[in-house]
Amino acid sequence: MHEPEIKEGRHAALADLANDEHPEVAKQLILSLGWSQDPAVFDLIGQAIENHPAHLGVTLAGTVALWKQETPTIKRLRSGEAFKKLKDPTTAATNWKMALAQWNRGLAFPEEMARDDTRKIEGGELLYYQNCVSCHGADGKGTKIPGMESALAPSLADSKRVHGPVSGLMRVMANGLIGPIDGVTYQAGYMAPAHALGITRDDRLAELLSYMRFVWGEKKTSLIKTDEVKEWRRKLKNRTTPWTDEELKSVAD
Q1: pLDDT given at position 139
Q2: Which of 43, 128, 179, 240 has an alpha carbon 20 to 30 Å from 101's alpha carbon atom?
Q3: Is 45:53 a contact under the CB 8 Å cutoff?
Q4: Which residues pair with 191 in a beta bridge?
Q5: CA separation, residue 223 to residues 3, 23, 130 (Å)
Q6: How, if at all, do strands 243-244 and 190-191 pair?
Q7: For residue 152, which of 186, 111, 112, 122 has the smallest C-alpha distance?
Q8: Which DSSP letter does residue 137 get?
Q9: For residue 51, what pLDDT is reported?
Q10: Predicted TM-score (pTM) of this structure
Q11: Could you tell me the end-to-end alpha-carbon distance of the chain, in angstroms, rounded to an integer?
């Protein structure tokens, strides 16, 4: 949505959208603005949020777009000031409290870990919460659906592909994954490849994979290098279909 204006810094042209009466428009605007590195977008994001503070989609988009930025809007949300015009502010306040709590998970790094490596993991954390958390959950164990036996997606915390060689993860992220996994059919049904999620840069995908392996892998400091991602994408560039679980179990590295 309006990516040219965002890329060129013409944020004022989007002011009308921030005041749109439809919350879905506000949500999409927030998500689009969230990719900008310009702090000038914070005011527009805040404006869109404060026009629709009770909409869950706006809540989730806002906490991602303003990740760990204590803007005036975030301060009003924390204090409850932003909910004063709502007839029933309780639900909205609770949703924002839960969403903002995700900012304070606190990754613990080994003292000897280089700052470049911790930055890589922190970058991957943000990518995970932008693209993966809705299906895989904050704890990596899969988002449960009330009343359903299965989760939306399989657990990453218990995944042999997260724990094992990078080849398994890279095949999934390069081409996607479809169908049952270990005999279980998940509600989401299909894991989109990284480029479909907007993760096209090799260094960004290396960040995401490094975060997953650091948090849930057995080798806590086994980070993924950008060159590894680039090489695997080169190897897999001619594949046009998603993998199945059975294929991945039988393929040789």
Answers
A1: 84
A2: 43
A3: no
A4: 177
A5: 32, 39, 20
A6: unpaired
A7: 186
A8: -
A9: 95
A10: 0.66
A11: 40
State how far Cα 27 lies from the chain centre: 15
Given a contact cutoff of 8 angstroms between Cβ atoms, the answer to whether 242 and 175 are in contact is yes
Domain residue extents for the chain: 3-104, 115-250
Residue 144: its pLDDT value, please?
80
Query: What are the φ and ψ backbone dihedral angles of 117, each rounded to 5 degrees?
Result: -75, -40
Low-confidence ranges of the chain (pLDDT < 50): 1
Question: Could you tell me which residues are beta bridge partners of residue 178?
Answer: 190, 244
Q: Report the phi/psi class of residue 140: left, alpha or beta, with left for phi > 0 and alpha for psi in -120 to 50.
A: left
Of 75, 60, 68, 19, whose CA–CA distance to 39 is shortest? 68
d(CA 169, CA 220): 16
Name the token pair of 171.
């095949």
Q: Which CATH architecture has domain 115-250?
A: Orthogonal Bundle (1.10)
Say what the pLDDT of residue 235 is: 95
Q: Could you give the CA distance from residue 3 to residue 142 in angstroms, rounded to a whole number?
A: 32
Number of Cβ within 10 Å of residue 37's Cβ equals: 5
DSSP sequence for 220-235: TT-PPPHHHHHHHHHH
Residue 52 in contact with residue 89, Cβ under 8 Å? Answer: no
Confidence (pLDDT) at 78: 92
Tokens 């060129």: give the residue.
8
| Residue-wise burial string across 106-138, b where 16 or more C-beta atoms lie within 10 A, e elsewhere | eeeeeeeeeeebeebbebbbbbbbbbbbebbbe
> Tens of pLDDT along 25-74?
999 899 888 777 678 889 999 999 999 999 988 998 898 888 888 999 99
The whole-number pLDDT of residue 67 equals 81
Eight-state DSSP code of residue 198: T
Instruction: List C-alpha distances in Å: 67 to 43, 166, 181.
Output: 14, 28, 32
| pLDDT score at 11 | 62
